[in-house]
Amino acid sequence: MNKGIYQHFSIEDRPFLDKGMEWIKKVEDSYAPFLTPFINPHQEKLLKILAKTYGLACSSSGEFVSSEYVRVLLYPDYFQPEFSDFEISLQEIVYSNKFEHLTHAKILGTVINQLGIERKLFGDILVDEERAQIMINQQFLLLFQDGLKKIGRIPVSLEERPFTEKIDKLEQYRELDLCVSSFRLDVLLSNVLKLSRNQANQLIEKKLVQVNYHVVDKSDYIVQVGDLISVRKFGRLRLLQDKGQTKKEKKKITVQLLLSK
């Protein structure tokens, strides 16, 4: 790829940029559509920038069905994508919820840690008080059906559902206006989550903090406007605005906050 494009992105994004260029080259060489695995919103944003830069059309499954993780189609101008082209199956995780409820963390932990299934093979995990669902790459459906028999102590099975029955993902973010001394990661976490600097540093050192879906283990990491920060067991926050400085040279910011339930 044109190495000059690297200067517009962070070092952490370089492996995905290289992968994105491989996908783009496949479309250019074959003059046929290419379907990506599931990618996160930050990767989706990067891929759309690359596609535009190299004159390719692209479309996301999220444009058809709302979701966080998506599959993206890269294609020549002649192709007109439909939702079926994204090859996504919505599976209900059927279980008895009389005594215990499945959580996002339990489902994710079972799929990745116990079954050893890569994150790119499945999309959103959706849960409410009574139900649980998972969006899966259709080509690997048997892998999930054969492997996912129990989550923790709870027996489960998978059943296909139409996307009209998808659980709505209702997340209530709230916005906070704050004044901070800097855009260092530990400073933001300390102020937003009401932690001591030492507590914030410990979360970072234990690799419990991600910025734009990358683990960050440096407390002095400088957060940029638009960055999404995820803190295990605390929730998510996004730096929405830099509103300048106060008379005491504090930085005025607006953050968007979603606390874990």
UniProtKB/TrEMBL annotation:
Q: Does the keyword Calcium apply?
A: no
Question: SMART domains under this entry?
Answer: S4
The record's GO molecular-function terms, alphabetically, read: RNA binding
User: For the RNA-binding S4 domain, which residue ranges apply?
Assistant: 183-245
Q: Does the keyword Metal-binding apply?
A: no
Q: Which CDD domains match?
A: S4
Its domain of life reads: Bacteria
Q: Which InterPro entries match?
A: Nucleotide-bd_a/b_plait_sf (IPR012677), RqcP2_N (IPR048443), RqcP2_RBD (IPR040591), S4_RNA-bd (IPR002942), S4_RNA-bd_sf (IPR036986)
A Pfam family: YlmH_1st
Which UniProt keywords are present, listed alphabetically? RNA-binding
Q: What is this protein called?
A: S4 domain protein
Report the source organism: Streptococcus mitis SK1080
Q: What is the lineage of its organism?
A: Bacteria, Bacillati, Bacillota, Bacilli, Lactobacillales
